[in-house]
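User:
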Amino acid sequence: MSVERDAPSPYAPPAVSAPLQRAAPVDPAATLTLLRTLGVLHHVLGALSLFGTLSLGLFLLFGISHEAATGFSDPSGIAMIAVVGTLVVLSLLGGALCIWAGLHLMRQTRLGLCTAVAALCCLNVPLGTALGISTLLILQRHEVRAAFAGPRLA
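Assistant: Predicted structure:
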């Protein structure tokens, strides 16, 4: 039995024939348009979150009025009021943060805030997850970071 010594191993990394080329420079106007689009999408998600809070708020008010009629005697009712109240506050905070980050994306300020809010948006399944991941990926681009570091494009 003979073994060929010149045959490449199936586990060897692929050979690179040409050096990797850098991507073409991106137009600053395209970066501005992309950031404005992300800002608008953050505004839409924040508005949807605030609008969704209305139903939770009505549910909370109904629970409070029902428990007030019984003298707040049911411990499970009080616990449910606390849980729904916490959800309402977190939803209001999340919607407001999302809208605030959208403003800063359009103005190209506060990269850290925009990154943190994009990460928090990932918790809002499914729309916030898609928007948060895409925002995080876009904020990692060199031209976008340069836009946040440089002078404002308008």
